[in-house]
């Protein structure tokens, strides 16, 4: 049995906390939001995010960050991406050298273009920081639907340690040293999922969705390889696997926000209606800036940024994607001249 603390009691943190408690670990769930702490303590249920799913009696809910960080075998960062840096700054004083941390949120910081692990390394340099990602909606994990993810770490020992804590007969965990590939796959797919939602909101069909997913993984791969990721990772669980589930599921906040935009809602209205952190919106500008920095073409990301931040019409954005200059699907596969 390990002592595990979750910093962040949203749907994903709560779902994983429930699973690890059922795995037999000693689990603490921290939130900075007083109303959330009260709700979880009194109802033993996250009524807003996971209605009907009860917290095991063994889970300790707290608002005390020092208590949540002290004397733990593993700290899970499960706050939404916009709050990773601020939470890390607060928690750093309570975290000892060599403390193992795994981040399970997905995103890229707009101002710095840092991945979430980069942020944690900067703010908590004394810790051993890993990442966990893959096609894994909290609503399904919370009720025990079979799910598979990958944990990435610079340390093989840390990756195996986290794998052993999380893995059970319904939650399979692979390990990988390709941290940047895992993080980019999990972050950029949220931006592509916004576009998928827009297409669904516009009433487009399966052909459109298949094309968007396929060209989406091409864009993710261009950026990933340019930044040092491995193609195997981008074609795996945290790349195409996470992209598929986020582009097609009604559980996806990014897809749902895009769908509402496609239906004619403003970005502000769509975010208010989803009423959860839509990570793709927070990451879109950063992904586009990275594309320019590394000189890779990401037309889907570019058009989504125009819709989100420049007020572009979604119909015009689709037209621009479809009427770009004709080209080979993959330039490296040109014909041999006779």
Low-confidence stretches: none
Oligomeric state as shown? single chain
Strand content: 5-15%
The N- to C-terminal Cα distance equals 67 Å
**Total beta-strand segments:** 8
Instruction: Return Rg in Å.
Output: 20 Å
Mean pLDDT: 97
| Global outline | globular
Order of helices and strands: EHEHEHEHEHEHEHEHHHHHHHHH
Proportion of helical residues? 40-55%
Number of helices: 16
* Largest sheet properties: 8 strands, mixed
Widest β-sheet, arrangement of strands: 3-2-1-4-5-6-7-8
Helices and strands: which structural class?
alpha/beta
Short description:
This protein is an alpha/beta fold. 51% of the residues lie in helices and 12% in strands.
Descriptive notes:
The protein is α/β, with parallel strands linked by helices. It is 51% helix and 12% strand. Strands 3-2-1-4-5-6-7-8 form an eight-stranded mixed β-sheet, sandwiched between helices. Helix 4 links the parallel strand 4 and strand 5.
Topology:
Elements: E1 3-7, H1 11-22, E2 26-30, H2 34-43, E3 60-62, H3 65-69, E4 74-77, H4 84-91, E5 100-103, H5 116-123, E6 128-133, H6 138-141, E7 147-152, H7 156-166, E8 171-176, H8 179-201, H9 206-226, H10 231-234, H11 237-248, H12 253-262, H13 267-274, H14 279-293, H15 299-309, H16 314-322
Parallel strand pairs: 1-2, 1-4, 2-3, 4-5, 5-6, 7-8
Antiparallel strand pairs: 6-7
Helix pairs in contact: 4-5, 8-9, 8-11, 8-12, 8-14, 9-11, 12-13, 14-15, 15-16
